[in-house]
Design goal:
CATH topology of the domain at 456-746: Spore Coat Polysaccharide Biosynthesis Protein SpsA, Chain A
Structural class: alpha/beta
CATH class of the domain at 456-746: Alpha Beta
Low-confidence stretches: 1-14, 16-55, 83-106, 108-129
Number of helices: 26
Mean pLDDT: 82
Strand content: 5-15%
Length: about 750
């Protein structure tokens, strides 16, 4: 701190020098301009050549003196600029105490300064009043619509959370799709001191739908114009961000810039870093009116209270109506209208330094910004090409973006010590449940997993499907991890109906999956597959949580509860739709069993019919599933009867029965206490039996398990004695819970277990 203040004293001395030298010069000139107590003009235009006092020598002296004055003024201007640059490039520890205050980099607020350039200031720890209090809430507004934008928002939020030291309040203007995705994500993310509010973007469409827009963002690209009406009336200021933004600093530094607004300045913007608004990109290029290069609206500081008093709604509407008479449509959505308003009212804008919005489009001039500024703040991928934009430094910026894209979001669940958080019922309940567990229990980790909240990103890829109108539609439900990714294409080829998948991945693996899916013609051609990412946390594979996530997000009345290692027979989707009608599944509690078989061959000529399957069964190419290691799991299916069956037949529940079934979507969930390997499906089938489901085997349906390396969880089960002990304990506790819940009828489960 002492060194910092010494540096400040040096800076103060230099500043005084800058002010003192011209002052002394002007005093000297002022004194030398009097003769006999009368002032003498320094300007040659005001000199009187015919005056007897006038001589050629005195004229030359005065001209020489004027030249010297201008030289001194120029030297001081250069010195001031150097001092300013020295400040902005000062060492990192000069940026202030983040727990107390964030100063801002000065911008300019008038049109002359806009064209003249940007002067960067610096934060100070010596004698500066706090600009952002330690626990002051920072408000951020983002417009988000659709599946892809929801993914982009997550990366933006990660970059903000990584650097932040203040509570955050996100105001998300979202359509129904984005709201479903992001509401679940933030609810399961459980980041302290972060509040989320949603505003229905679909209700705002009528406010801007009258504006023709050619921008790829569509109608949602115009919604920043109506934030003064949309956001709460008591919200005074907000930072507005595009979804393709990446932060490289604490957002509080940007929030602090509000304190620099003066007079009627209500918009904080960075100058546009392309020649778009100059109208010289191509022949007959005719952009909307703008002040100079115009401003980019990827990052906006809005003083909402003042904007409302200025009647912002009326201001931008009148401007848009007037310009559309000649322009016919917007090319850059809201940005065109913002610039047209600023062109007429330049006093509204406070120009932010360029590093608050480094724009990486194909025709950008952003290099002139970061060539001069060593401490970049915000990266803006404002090109439709995004990471594929043409820029010689794009690799540097891409790596910065990928850092947050693949960063483990669970690490951002850190508390802001000293800042009280709003009461969160879910968080409080979780803490209460965990506190009731005995940490000395040898099975503590198993029990704890039941209450772990896993961050969940629904519909990671575009999903578009309307269930069949005859109410017979069936969704295949499964779960997987990264090592089973290769099964996806094969399943899509075998099952043409809708699919709901829960994938257990890390943040980095999620991006690998995205690249894999986007590179697959098979997967990209299917829009009826819902991919739901459940992010890794803890040491166990939460198999039943994954199943529940996939089950919960289906849009059909029925579901086929499968596993990712199985390929359904060709035509099974249509066969099941007919079966649900034939067996009146809508009005009866039935579980339709699809018999399971397996092969030990990685290359299999998949049977096209039941007759072909029976032939392969007789030849030893196929086997009934797990007949050699876990006979009880599927023995009640009665494969001997199935060989000759032509009509559905009923079977009774037996201990350890775990068939793959088709049920209504309202069937009970899987029990989360079972994780990893063992009893996860068995417990669910037991629950169905307790609820008096009737098990019916389908005579012309089948599925085949494909070979794969043993999972990590089955390896732990086989090698770890404590794992097996804990699984046995959880089984007993589950059976006791069944007895308490279903009474006398559930006693058979205890008896069956003892006899097995």
């Amino acid at each position: 701190m002492l060194g910092i203040c010494r540096g400040r004293r040096k800076f103060l001395a230099a500043s005084l020098t800058v002010l003192f030298v011209p002052a002394v010069t002007w005093i000297y000139l002022f004194a030398g301009s009097f003769e006999d107590g009368k002032p003498v003009s320094l300007s040659p235009l005001e000199s009187q050549p015919h005056s007897p006092r006038y001589t050629a020598s005195s004229q030359r002296e005065r001209e020489s003196l004027e030249v010297r004055v201008r030289e001194v003024e120029e030297e001081n201007r250069v010195l001031r600029k150097q001092l300013s640059l020295a400040q902005s490039r000062g060492p990192a520890h000069h940026r202030g105490n983040h727990s107390k205050t964030y100063s801002m980099e000065e911008g300019t607020g008038d049109s002359e300064s806009l064209r003249a350039g940007i002067v960067a200031g610096n934060s100070s720890e010596c004698g500066q009043q706090p600009a952002v209090e330690k626990c002051e809430t920072i408000h951020v507004a983002i417009v988000c619509a659709g599946y892809n934008a929801s993914r982009d928002v997550v990366t933006l939020v990660k970059s903000v959370l990584f650097h932040r030291r203040n509570p955050l309040h996100f105001h998300l203007i979202a359509d129904a799709i984005a709201k479903q995705i992001l509401a679940t994500l933030f609810q399961t993310w459980m980041v302290p001191a972060v509040r989320i509010d949603f505003y229905d973007a679909d209700e705002l469409k009528s406010e801007v739908s009258w504006i023709p827009n050619k921008h790829y963002s569509g109608i949602y690209g115009l919604m920043k114009l109506v934030l003064t009406k949309t956001l709460p009336s008591n919200l005074e200021r907000v930072i507005v961000l595009d979804t393709d933004i990446t932060f490289a600093t604490d957002i509080a530094e940007l929030w602090a810039v509000f304190h620099k607004f003066k007079g009627q300045q209500v918009l904080g913007l960075v100058e546009n870093q392309s020649d778009w608004y100059l109208g010289n990109l191509w022949k007959n290029h005719r952009p909307w009116p703008a002040l100079g290069r115009g401003y980019n609206t990827g990052v906006i500081l809005l003083l909402l209270d003042k904007l409302r008093k200025m009647k912002w709604e009326q201001m931008w509407r009148l401007t848009a109506e007037r310009e559309l008479m000649s322009m016919l449509s917007t090319s850059l959505a809201d940005q065109d209208i913002f610039n047209a308003v600023i062109k007429q009212n330049p006093f509204l804008v406070y120009q932010l330094p360029c590093f608050w919005n480094v724009q990486l489009s194909d025709h950008t001039r952003s290099e002139q910004c970061y060539r001069d500024v060593s401490d970049l703040k915000v990266i803006h991928w404002n090109s439709p090409k995004k990471l594929r934009v043409k820029n010689k430094h794009v690799e540097f910026f891409r790596n910065l973006y990928l850092t947050f894209l693949e960063y483990d979001g669970n690490l951002l669940r850190r508390e802001l010590f000293g800042c009280p958080s709003e009461a969160d019922v879910n968080s409080e309940n979780l803490q209460k449940q965990l506190s009731e567990l005995d940490e000395d229990d040898l099975c503590y980790e198993f029990r704890r997993e039941r209450f772990t909240v896993h961050r969940t990103h629904l519909y990671f890829l575009h999903y578009e499907y309307e269930p069949a109108s005859d109410n017979t539609d069936v969704t295949l439900v499964a779960q997987l991890s990264m090592d089973r990714l290769q099964m996806l294409e094969a399943i899509c080829k075998h099952w043409e109906g809708p699919i709901s998948l829960a994938l257990y991945l890390s943040d980095a693996e999620a991006q690998q999956f995205l690249r894999y899916a986007q590179g697959s013609e098979v997967l990209m051609s299917r829009h009826n597959v819902g991919y739901h990412i459940v992010y890794k946390e803890g040491q166990f594979y939460p198999v039943n949580l994954l199943r529940n996530v996939a089950m919960k997000h289906i849009s059909t009345p029925y579901m086929f509860l499968s596993d990712i290692d199985f390929l359904p027979m060709y035509g099974l989707y249509e066969y099941l739709r007919k079966s649900v009608i034939q067996l009146d599944l809508a009005n009866t509690k039935k579980a339709l069993i699809v018999p399971a078989f397996e092969t030990l061959r990685y290359r299999l000529s998949f049977p096209k019919s039941k007759a072909e399957l029976l032939s392969m069964l007789d030849m030893g190419t196929l086997f009934t599933f797990r007949y050699h290691v876990w006979t009880k799991g599927h023995a009640p299916t009665n494969f001997a009867k199935w060989r000759t069956a032509t009509t559905p037949y009923r079977v009774e529940w037996e201990a350890d029965f775990e068939p793959y079934v088709v049920v209504r979507k309202d069937c009970p969930e899987y029990d989360r206490r079972f994780v990893g390997f063992g009893w996860n499906k068995v417990a669910h089938i037991m629950e169905l039996d307790a609820q008096e489901y009737e098990f019916t085997v389908l005579p012309n349906a089948y599925m085949i398990h494909m070979p794969h390396a043993p999972s990590f969880d089955i390896t732990k089960f086989r090698s770890n004695k404590q794992y097996r002990i804990c699984l046995k304990t959880l089984k007993e506790e589950f059976q006791q819970d069944m007895s308490r819940h279903y009474g006398f009828a559930a006693l058979k489960y205890l008896t069956a277990e003892n006899n097995s």
